[in-house]
Amino acid sequence: MEENRTKVVIDCDPGTDDCFALMLCIKHLDVKGIVTVGGNTGLEYTEKNARFMTELCERTDIPVYAGYDQPMFGKAVRAAYAHGATGLGDVIIPEPKKQLEPVHGVDFLIDFFMHNDDVKLITLGPLTNVAQAILKEPRLCKRIPEILCMGGSGTAGNFSAAAEFNIYVDPEAAKIVFESGIPIRMVGLNLTRQNNMNMKDVEAMKAIGNPVADFAAAILTHNAGKGGVCSLCDACTVVWYIDPQIIRKSLMVHVDVETKGEFTRGMTLCDWRDYMGTDPICDIAHEKKYDTTFAGKKEPNVEVAMEFDADRFRKLLMDTLRSYGA
Ligand SMILES: [Ca+2]
Predict the structure, then answer these.
(1) pLDDT value at position 282?
(2) For the chain, which residues make up each domain, given as ranges?
(3) DSSP state at residue 87
(4) Strand duo 268-270 + 64-66: pairing
(5) Is the pLDDT of residue 286 over 90?
(6) What angle do CA 69, 301, 179 make, to 5 degrees?
(7) Helix (H, G, I), strand (E, B) or coil at 187
């Protein structure tokens, strides 16, 4: 492992797009551990899928932990419509030989970040584990140097008009994390919608001819085969640590997580007031237009990803899949 690779712990709910993110992270980052959470599907599948990914990528040395299955309050919401009941579309995987670590994911997060200074946290699912860890060990707020979060949206949601799935599943957890004071980079749907993988990409993956690329093609078929939008949200997120030029523009703004709204529960309410454009075609200007420093305005707490280089992303992904056969 090259010494200069960014060190990360990944909290995820695989999930097809989580699998793509894991393929990228395992190849390009120094992954210290994978924690799983209930989200796209139940924990019994997300933890199994994560263990499978370490075997597929031949990195069974990376420890995998199971965290919480259920959100802090309310009933779990799943995304079988997008990821299938097992989280991997129609793809059946063998039972992995790789075992779970005998420690709860939340206890791992606490112990790990209390004893390591230079490791960042990537979250690709509901923020339940991270919030529970912060509640159990509040000193984590000063110990986690940064969270790179796939969640929320600077514009419209997906699970509801206002809310993106990861935040919608556990808004209280997201609120705790977003208000923790830990620096946050947020990759929301406003960014990931700039990526759209399709059946041409599936064919290109099939042509590579190694087990990781074959698996990538198989799980991408589930989404791309329906002819819908296939953004691979989690993969779009992790590239910020792998090839930062893919995220061409980001803005520091204040983000609040809505937990109570009649229609907006789970919304990441971004304060764009300083950026409102004068061109009605352009909903949010990408340069500051105004300074609305009036009463009630809060300090920016989140770096929100704005512009995505889809061509550069596609090249990185394909090169990475190819490299697994080398
Ligand atoms: Ca995910």
Answers:
(1) 58
(2) 2-323
(3) S
(4) unpaired
(5) no
(6) 40
(7) strand
Three-state secondary structure call for residue 26? helix
Map tokens 């004071």 to a residue: 181
**Unique residue bearing structure tokens 């779990």:** 76
How far does residue 22's CA lie from ligand 1's centre (Å)? Answer: 10
Please say if the pLDDT value at position 32 is more than 90. yes
Ligand 1 centre distance from Cα of residue 36 (Å) = 10
Burial of 75 (0-12, 13-18, 19+ CB in 10 A): exposed
For residue 9, which of 119, 111, 174, 118 has the smallest C-alpha distance? 119
Q: Contact, 166 vs 82, CB < 8 A?
A: no
Rounded to the nearest angstrom, the distance between the alpha carbon of 18 and the centre of ligand 1 is 5
CA of 289 relative to ligand 1 center, distance in Å: 34
pLDDT band at residue 261 under the 50/70/90 scheme: very high
What one-character DSSP code corresponds to residue 65? E
**Phi, then psi, of 190 in degrees rounded to 5:** -60, -30
Of 169, 177, 227, 160, nearest to 198 by C-alpha is 227
> What is the domain class of 2-323 according to CATH?
alpha beta
The pTM (predicted TM-score) of the whole model is: 0.94
Name the least confident of 8-22, 196-210, 291-305: 291-305
Q: What is the DSSP letter of 265?
A: T
CA 168 to centroid of ligand 1, rounded, Å: 13
